[in-house]
């Protein structure tokens, strides 16, 4: 126990050093002792390309759109319409924690491109914190305000603005929503707090839903849970949260996984990833470094803490700032819970049998709060968290695609008869 605490604190110490040593905020690599490695990683990343380049490379037409949220974030989202069908039903795909839309377009039978082939008007959302696809009208990555968000804000602001933008630009008053991992939590937060969005979401398919996750078998998450109290009080007391977040983003999320994969080799990297997100044959192959890159689009530490709080509370509650601050903000020591009865959009919960977070037990817990939701457990193989988006096995990808399709292809959407505007 002491050993774990010690190693954990060392980790924080190292990150802390990284955070406080460099006063330079324009070139994050200038005083980075791993400069050579960072260079290799950057070269590597440049060869991977971005979402739009990848979609084009696979032969699909793609458009970029800019969505501004009520609180001033500007998100770049993408749209893919296959020419086969003139006016498909709008479908929004939202990626998980620290991921960009890249996870939905890796192969031609990845979820996003498959759905475009099926005639859907597929939109790919990105969230605040993504260093490639988000910015703010006033704040930069160097401002604390930029990073002051958890999955709640992703739901209230990013998801709602994205949904409204899409409905403004299509012939429909409703859409199909497909969310993955942490995006399932932010979407439930929106649908619970702003129930009018239930009318806009005709069907919500959640892949690896993470709303109620008390039964965690991820070794890495368990390690963080053991030290949750230290982490929380340390972060609450941290003066320069922006620098820490920016550094975490740069050093840990952007560089940690690729650095580990390139330095220690793919098998070590697979092992570490399996401790975090679970293992199944075919989850991780030689593309592990690519996966690592997808995993690293930027995230706020507050989002991560809020996920740990969910595990702790065994349900979805507002962000906890500590008892005193909670009383000031919410009037109660423990933050209020989200009311899942407010979520009325038809919901499908699809979990993997071997997912360390979104497993059958947690899925059962969610459906106790949402008895109307349809539950599906994927058990074709040791199905784990990443298999939804990164399985190298093309048959597994087809299997997921069919599961999604059979739950959306009978959905009818209300047309928007008044929208005679400039939609295309
Ligand atoms: C940090 O970045 C901000 C925004 O880019 C800039 O205005 C400021 O001058 C920078 N500070 C330092 C010490 O470089
Ligand atoms: C949708 O269109 C209305 C009317 O043109 C506009 O007021 C609103 O800001 C738009 N919303 C988004 C998210 O684009
Ligand atoms: C939750 O929402 C339902 C449906 O609107 C309502 O009947 C119930 O009273 C709410 N529960 C709480 C605790 O607010
Ligand atoms: C569309 O038209 C209906 C009926 O004519 C009306 O009730 C509704 O408010 C209109 N919606 C918008 C967004 O203008």
UniProtKB/TrEMBL annotation:
Keywords tagged on the record: Glycoprotein, Hydrolase, Lipid degradation, Lipid metabolism, Signal
Domain of life from the UniProt record: Eukaryota
Signal peptide extent: 1-22
Domain Partial AB-hydrolase lipase: from-to ranges: 52-105
Catalytic site positions: 181, 355, 385
Molecular function, one GO term: hydrolase activity, acting on ester bonds
GO biological process: lipid catabolic process
InterPro entries from the UniProt entry: AB_hydrolase_fold (IPR029058), AB_hydrolase_lipase (IPR006693), Lipase_euk (IPR025483)
Similarity-based family: Belongs to the AB hydrolase superfamily. Lipase family.
Descriptive protein name: Lipase
